[in-house]
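Teaching assistant's notes for section 4

Start the section by putting this record on the projector. Ask students to predict, before seeing the second block, whether Cbb3-type cytochrome c oxidase subunit will look compact or extended. Collect guesses on the board.
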Amino acid sequence: MTMFWTIWISVITLGSIIGCYVLLRWCLKNNAGVPEGESMGHEFDGIEELNNPLPKWWTYLFYVCIVWSFFYLALFPGLGSFGNLLGWKSSNQNIQSLEESRQMSAQAKETGALVKYDREMQFAEEKYSPIFEAYAKVPVEELAKDPNALKVGQRLFAQNCSQCHGSDARGQNGGFPNLTDDDWLYGGSGEKIKETLLNGRKAAMPAWLAAMGEQGIKETVAYVLSLSGRDTNMELRKAGKARYAACAACHGQDGKGNQLLGAPNLTDNIWLYGGSERAVTETLTYGRNGVMPAFKDTLGEHKIHVVATYVYSLSN
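Reveal the predicted structure now:
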């Protein structure tokens, strides 16, 4: 934090505390022009306002809070970059990567630094690790029958996966698959889902414009759309069938795809990037290189096992 923001925070914080003290002292003085205990001349529904001083217990409590605020600032948060006496921090700052976060957490643990986030993570790890270890010993297909495990998996999914696949796991156009329809690029078994979550996936649909040209793309699109029962131009479709030989290496002669390569089934009318003529043309012209990130380092294998169980349950 720069010195400007440190001064800014310090002035506002200390000014607020001192302001509370000044206001309290002002309220303790009799500024009403009426002797204490006398009527203020206000009456409503038989209730009369008297010029009484602030209660002693309330005044002393306010003084204690003001004094405590200075001790609290000195011991814990500090003021901006001035730090505090205990070395307390809410979290390790200016971290650029997960690895750097782990290194700083390990360093804080070795030196005994008071980093609140690290302490909370350590507490959570000690408390919940045995639960995840027990879940990890049960196969995904069996664990999917455990409602408690599914609730845990759902929460982990919401925190880590819903940003792309949606809170209902139905995905969206643009390369985010629907996880509820039993249509899988790399396989929908428990182990395959775990493999995807652990290691991630990277699409490798090449661009075909240079090889086929615009007319060739148009013809191939017509044939590809016909594989899912779409009505297309017959002449374009016939020409595209010959060109499809270049696509068959991944998608198969029948267009049903190949889960070993992550090549989609072109016959089921389920489209990852949209199934309109324009969207398929764009896919063939420019290719697709979507990325599913690996979560092995983020969640760990045991938590991934539970997430995989939840994802498996969505389509089973």
